[in-house]
Amino acid sequence: MIFTIDARLKKYSWLDYGLFLQTVMIAARARGLDTCAQVSFARYPGIIADHLDLAAGHDVVCGMSLGYADESAVINRLEIPRESVDGFASFAGFEEYA
């Protein structure tokens, strides 16, 4: 799937769009499907617009694969370490609840 947004919309609309994408991914998972959002598609807006006959004034947000993961494929068993929340975020005002 290719997701686009009206180019006139500002950064807050992009936040809404991110929430929408997350909801699509959660809904797919609830139905037994797997997804993979791919921002790399945003680097090729002209090619995508030509192939999909997109209207002018739309920015490509991302692509998303949708389907059933092949659990036997080695690539689907790759584990990538994650940064702990403390490594990139701080929370203030919650000390009294700790």
TrEMBL record:
Ranges that cross the membrane: none
A Pfam match: Nitroreductase
Nitroreductase domain location: 8-68
Keywords linked to the UniProt accession: Plasmid
Record-linked SUPFAM superfamilies: FMN-dependent nitroreductase-like
GO MF assignments: oxidoreductase activity
Top-rank taxon, per record: Bacteria
Gene3D superfamilies, per the entry: NADH Oxidase
Name of the protein this chain belongs to: Nitroreductase
UniProt source species: Caballeronia insecticola
